Each structure stands twice: as C-alpha cells, then as structure tokens.
Amino acid sequence: MDHIVVFVNILTVTIGFAAIYQGFQVYRTYRFPAVRSFVLYVALYNSVMLLTLFAQYILRNIGSLSSDERYTLIIVVMGFFAFAIVAIEVSFYSAAMWNLSGVARTPRWCVFSLGLVFTGWLAAFTIGCYRYFQIADKRFLLAVHQGINLSLSALFLLIPLVPLLRARNTESERQRRLLTTAGLLLFSVACLDACGYLITSPLDVLVMLVASLILNLAVLLKFGAFVTAFYGPGTETSASHLNLDRLCAEYSFSARERDIIQMILKGKSNKEIEQELFISPHTVKNHVYHIFQKAGVNSRGQLVSMILQNSAGPADGQVS
Question: What is the pLDDT of residue 48?
Fold first, then answer.
C-alpha cells in the first residue's frame, strides 16, 4: 500500500504541474482576477503536494532516527513551510471564488475570519513546537497538526459554497449554470478529501491523494473550456458584443484609449500593446492610467468586469 500511495502522489504532482502550466496559459488570454487567483491557488496547492512527497521520501530514508521521532520531526519541519503556504493558498482560493461570483474584492468579514483562523494556526503550532522541544510533548504537537488539517478541510468545504449560493442571484443563465458546476465540483472534491479523516490508515492518505488527482485533472482538461465559456472567447468576437461606443461616450475615452481597451479585453500585456500600436512603454502606461482614472477602477480585471457588466451578453444566452 505504501508503494501505491507514493506512486499516486508522484502522479498527482506530475499532473498538478501540468495543470499549473495550463492555468498560466489560460491566464495569458483571460487576465481576470478570478483566473489569476485560481491559478495561483493551484500552484500553491501542488507545492504543498510536492512537500508531502518529499516528506514521504525523508520518512523512508532516514534510518538514524526511530520511527516515532522521525515522524514528529517531519511534522515540525513540514509545519513551518506547509502551513504558511497553505494559508496563502486558502487566501487565493477564497479570492477566486468571490471574484468568480462577481465580487471584485473578498469581503472584509471573510478576510478577517481567515486572518483569525491563520493566527490560531500560528499560535497553536508555535505552542506545540515549544512543548515538543522543551518537554518532549509529542502528543500535543501531533494533535495540533491534526486540528489544523481538520480546520483546513472545513475551509475547503465552506469556500465552494460562495459560487453555489451566489449563482442564484446571477442574471445570466449561462453563468448561473457554470457557477453551479464549478461550485459542485470543488465541493465534491473537498468532501472526498474530508472522507480521508473517516478512513483508517493507510487508505486515508490514498483517498486524499485521489481527491487532489481529480482536482488537477479537472484543471488540466477543463479549465480553459470553463473560462472560455464563462467569459466568452478571448478574441475580437468577444469585443464585438461590447457597446464600446456608448462606453467611450459615457467615460470620455479617446480613440486611442478605445484601441487600448480593446487590447486589454483580449488579454494583451503592456508590452504587446506597445508592439501592436507602435507606441512607447511610457505612452502605454499613461493611457492605461488615464483609462483607470476615467473609469474609476484600479486594475485591468476591474476594468474588464465593469465593461462586461455594462455590455450586453450573447443574445441566446447559450454557452459558446
């Protein structure tokens, strides 16, 4: 069984890094906050999986320590790195779910709640390490580790409820279906991961790895199609749905600023805009700054979201 666990872990990490590459490729076309946050979440998620693989290797190849001491030492080392990465991972995951649901920024109450949870993790882990090194209290440290993992599973069960609940208030039938699909998939993966705590070892680790494998496969195979269906094609046909004439009149955008907005809608970077319009980097930055000022936004993602909200979607409301 140990060999199967190691094999599935290696497979999960391999597919995970392919999923990361796929995610960044999608983000090159669709530079939306939700896409960026989710891709970063996937990257950090698989970094933790890689750390887990290293931990398994170390546990099996350090013969100078007794089994119990070896396990506890790995818990300490992993905790310092893994829990810090996981805290950032959860933050990006939460931001992605809120952005996907049409909220530009994660609500303050959510940020505050996550901050309390992360502070609790840090305090409990610090106390556990202190007790371990001062009085060799391994039991308390292992209990802290288990408690953090349980609270993490609870967060992953709660956060996908955001798109599920907000889908009911979404006017577009297409986006409502897509939000529901994404929420159900992520919630199902979290449920499968949580089931690992109800199963005895070593099957518990295998169940959690299978949940990770399903998530990575979904990102690798369907992420691009989902983003395309949710936001529309990242080409000129997407811009054709947008009533830019009305928006330009409303916000007093110049002809050159309109050209740059169309480039931004297609996911072009400042460098790409500079090359296609044959203008200097400083000119591009100035135009983008003035566009933001006129539209009252602070980022490209907010600008695109504002334009999409003020423009008509596909007439038939069907997924492209």
Answer: 83
Compute the distance between CA of residue 203 and CA of residue 1 in angstroms, rounded to an integer.
8
List the domain range (segments joined by +) for residue 213: 2-231
In-domain check, residue 116: yes
Q: Provide the mean pLDDT of the chain.
A: 80
Question: CA–CA separation, 196 vs 200, rounded Å?
Answer: 8
Alpha helices in 236-299 (DSSP H): 236-240, 244-251, 255-265, 270-277, 281-295
Examine the domain organization and report whether 99 and 191 are in the same domain: yes
Q: Which of 141, 117, 149 is nearest to 68 (CA)?
A: 141
Q: How many domains does the chain have?
A: 2
Look at residue 182 and tell me whether its pLDDT is greater than 80: yes
Q: How many residues does the chain have?
A: 320
User: In terms of C-beta density within 10 A (0-12 exposed, 13-18 middle, 19 or more buried), how is residue 137 classed?
Assistant: middle
Evaluate whether residue 319 is within a structural domain.
no
pLDDT of residue 117: 92
